[in-house]
Design a protein that fits this description.
Number of strands: 0
Structural class: mainly alpha
Shape: elongated
Number of helices: 4
Distance between the termini: 63 Å
Largest sheet: none
Order of helices and strands: HHHH
Helix content: 55-70%
Length: about 90
């Protein structure tokens, strides 16, 4: 009986450690999520980054690369430019 309790406790602790490690390793930047929300979401790869997610990651290094996105037009483009302008303030 004591062996089952010990084994269950160890499994519970290892499970908690795995979840916390996953949260720490796979942590996404809030800015990346905000950029991704403002991109068109076509994942066409016309910008050269393969997907909108790739573009959002690159925007963390070079904020001006959103201009390479060909489908980003109209209201979405204005929204992206306003968001970037607010970041610069």
């Amino acid at each position: 009986m004591i062996g089952i309790i010990i084994l269950t406790s160890v499994a519970l602790l290892l499970g908690i450690m795995l979840v916390l490690t996953d949260l720490f390793i796979n942590k996404k930047d809030d800015k990346e999520e905000e950029y991704l929300k403002r991109l068109p979401g076509y994942n066409c790869g016309a910008c050269g980054y393969g997907s909108c997610s790739g573009m959002a990651k690159e925007m963390l290094n070079n904020i001006e690369c959103y201009k390479k996105c060909r489908p980003l037009r109209g209201d979405k483009l204005k929204e992206m430019e306003e968001y970037i302008e607010n970041l610069k303030k």
